[in-house]
Prior knowledge:
Layout: E1 3-13, E2 21-26, E3 47-50, H1 60-64, E4 70-72, E5 77-79, H2 89-93, E6 99-102, E7 104-107, H3 108-116, H4 119-125, E8 128-132, H5 140-152, E9 156-161, H6 167-174, E10 179-183, H7 189-196, H8 201-212, E11 217-223, H9 231-244, E12 249-254, H10 260-265, H11 280-292, E13 296-299
Parallel strand pairs: 2-8, 8-9, 9-10, 10-11, 11-12, 12-13
Antiparallel strand pairs: 1-2, 1-7, 3-6, 4-5
Amino acid sequence: MKKGCIFDIRGYSIHDGPGIRTTVFFKGCYLHCPWCHNPEGQSPKIELIFTETRCRGCQECLKNCPRQALSRSASETLINREKCDLCGICVEGCFSQALEFVGKEMTVQEVMEAVEKDRIFYEQSNGGVTFSGGEPLRQADFLEALLIECRKRDIHTCLDTSGYVSSEIFNKISAKVDLFLYDLKIMDEEKHRRYTGASNKLILENLKTLAAENKNIIIRIPLIAAINDTSENILQTAEFVKSLKVVTEISLLPYHRLGSQKYRKLNRPDPSNKFEIPSEEKMQEIKKTLENLGFKVKIGG
């Protein structure tokens, strides 16, 4: 029985593809974008998180932890992740749910049961299920099993992906996907490597392959001020997408800081203040530039 690690399933989603959808978030990502708003999706492993606003200060978790992996600062409970073995004793004893796990091992059937709950909305809105993350392709076998099951049940599928995976895996999965929400972040390879930790060559090659096979694709550009919202990057992106010939739609996703608290829950430094939110004027300028080049452009999901 195939199992995968999922960190969230959200029903009634309207920003992850056409119609009303259920979005399934896979844990684990190959890239390391510092502006990521889902940091809990970066590691492929289940993680322990702490929410300060729920904590009653009883410190029972510190007393109960058999590995002494928890300590208390003036304002929060700290987790020593090298000591923590995810035994769950602290979670079980935390009645305020300040300590909890993010990520859950699930079977195909368990995920499909959650997906089926919103079937009536898919039928009324031409919606379906979107697999997101993290990076779903990091759990390719589990993703494939879910895609096969969705096809059996006539449920429309979207894959929200960076495209950063081997061509062998990518081609195996692509035939089973109805619509790709494909991220393009930075066209300059050196800059892409500097900010994401990986080259963009594989990403661009996989996108070329999709286009050559005439797949349904919507390009998504997460825009971070002064990083990739420059005229140079936008025009390079447009030129590349134009060369694919089959892609006509682009979604612009303005950077936001809604993930800021998630970093604190994970006891990680919050990078959100290092990056600027593009202005509404800048978003409209980019939208107009791309529209003038013949693209259908949407701001937001």
